[in-house]
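Ticket #4471: structure output looks truncated?

Reporter: J.K.
Steps to reproduce: submitted the chain below (287 residues) through the standard prediction queue, then opened the result file.
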Amino acid sequence: MSMLDPDLLKTFLAFVDGGSLAQAASFVGRSASAVTTQMQRLEDIVGEPLLVPQGRGRVLTPAGEDLAGHARRILAVHREAWLALKGVRADGRVAIGTTQDFADSGLPELLRAFAASYPRVRIELRVGRSAELAEALQTGILDLMVAMRQAPAPDEISVLREPMMWLCSQRGLATRQDELPLALLDPHCGFREAAIAALDRVGRRYRIAAGSASLAGLRTAVNAGIALTLRTARFAHSGIVEAPRDLGLPQVPIAEFAIRLRQDAEPPAQDLAALFSGNLALAGAPS
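Returned output as attached by the reporter:
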């Protein structure tokens, strides 16, 4: 009997959750052609087509829909076994820093799995903005960090790539104006800079209708319909959706997030970093 390779299952679920091969390639850090090859290998192992063309993209076959549920359970058991063997005698503390994006979506699921297998390890969690987290890592306050990537760093162990997207209230904007109203985090913020650069590139008029120092404030402004914002799909929940196409918004780049580990970190922090590196791209990803 052919075995289901966890790496193939991760790529398959990246397609399921991302909705396209291009999105899957971004999630797993591979080229689109490499993802296509992996899907072909998985179909050969299963003996059934998993994806079929539909329009300009592909959708799951009935066999693909069945496999998605099995794949999630297989990877969950795989993760639990790895954690149980690693964490049986571990103790100490791990100080983690993360942006709000992953504190809301992704980290809770993985921290729960880690805590179940490392019951004696104390978790210290700091949620903040990327620049302050990077400083805390450099000064030894943090062992591990997940934050927006500004430039390659020697302590990076993994890079997550997720498409930026324009987002607004599911009720739409409260008013339509010639100037596009934006809700943005205070400087310096990679999403703020990307939004302004994209609009300037196409000559689209805009105004900063709402500013905030936190994602909570940003969410309130967007939910109220005061303005739209630029984030990733992890921000699209609780009444916030992708902005409609009729707004004619410009294309925006891929956001990069780095998982960084302090070079002299203790084994529990190394294990948690490995868990994040292998699973955070899919954990909490919108389906």
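Triage note (M.O.): checked the attachment and the full token line is present. The longest helix spans residues 62-87.
Status: closed, working as intended.
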